[in-house]
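Lab notebook: predicted structure, single chain.

Context: the supervisor wants predicted structures on file for every construct in the current expression panel, including those that have not yet been purified. This is the next one on the list. No modifications to the sequence; it matches the entry in the shared construct table.
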Amino acid sequence: MDNKLIYYFRKWTDISEEAEGIILSAFEPASVKKKKDLLEPGEVCQYLYFIVKGCLRSYYVDDKGLEHIYQIRLDNSWISDLGSFFSQKPSKYYIESLEDTEYLRISHDRLEQLYAEVPQLERYFRILFQKAYVNALARLNDTMWVSAVDRYNQMLKEQSDIFQRVPLVYIASYLGITPESLSRIRRKS
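Prediction complete. Output recorded below exactly as produced.
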């Protein structure tokens, strides 16, 4: 479980074997059963989660009771409510497991401490958070200017396994379309 985390840290930064031990001791291994919440609106997001195996989604519910999915993350990826995590203010989001999920988590305070203990990780997380910001902007822009068909095809190309693991109603919400529209798009493809 821990080797995957170290593999991803090594993609963007050099870390020593000694640093590996420090890093691994900073992360708590945990698991959650399918359809359980790791975060609910009104709670402060206390953790960054690295998904070792499984699937998590973050979403909010609007005033009309409609769910809007912000993130769907599978194996070997990160999820959190970064706004709440960094500000330590209450979240508007749920984070829910869509499958039985094994993950590693680190708290805000422990992450700050880890930066001091292993300074190279600041570079890794800076790159990670920059990529998250760029991806969020791209997704917002895509929702405004890219057709639903093109968004679907892009997801199919970049994350084809998501269609075997995530209910289509959630994929439709993530794409910003109705389930009926997604069905029409899939029939025509």
